[in-house]
Every structure is written in C-alpha cells, then in structure tokens.
Amino acid sequence: MLAIKPLSGDVVHVRELQGSPVVLNFWASWCGPCVEEAGVLGQAFRRARQRPLRGADNRDTDSAYQSFEKTHPHPIPRDRLFSGATSRTASRVSRRRSFIDKQGTVLASFVGPLDRPTLNHYIELITR
Question: What is the distance between the alpha carbons of residues 40 and 34, in angstroms, rounded to a whole number?
Fold first, then answer.
C-alpha cells in the first residue's frame, strides 16, 4: 500500500486521500527537472481553490530530503515516500504526476515535466 510520511511523522496512506482531488507528484532531490518545474507547480498550488497538490519524495536519504526542503522552499506539501514502492517502482515513478479525482480514480498520469496549460487543465478536471 502506497503511503507518504510528512516531517510531522504522521503516515498518510494514499487511499486516505479519497474524497478530495489530488495531484500526486513524485520527485527526488537529485532530479534537476523537479527543481525547474517547482515554480509551475507552486503557482498552480497557490491558484487552485482546493489545493490538490501533494508531493512524494522517493529514493532519497533523510538528510538529502531535508537539505532539499531547506534549499528549495515551496508552498506544496511534499513528504517522504514511506511504503509501497520498491526501488524498481520508485525509479519508474520519479517525476510522475498522477491526477486523481475525489472518487479515487486516476484520470491521467504523466512522466516528465508538465507545462502550465496542461497542468491547469487536469487540475480543473479533478476539482470539478
């Protein structure tokens, strides 16, 4: 079962997010494009009425995660990927965005950077 863990220590299972739209953004501290697109994701988070973006760091040590968070401030809740992903799965989901509606249905999933119009389009679809 896929779960993320905020610095507060409370584990959040992705299935518990059902009932609210979510853009689940997998990232890593060593991912250059993840840093580059942070501005687009941050702007979308600030504009979205329901604030659906949630980040999940994968394949980082605790110190690399914490260093990244200090170096690259952002408004999006980003947590550590806690369970449910093997190293093989984690390498496939790095830089993946999944757009999940409030019923828990994944409406779209993208690998690689998203441009602002595409990101806004899918946020609009899941927050209707």
Answer: 10
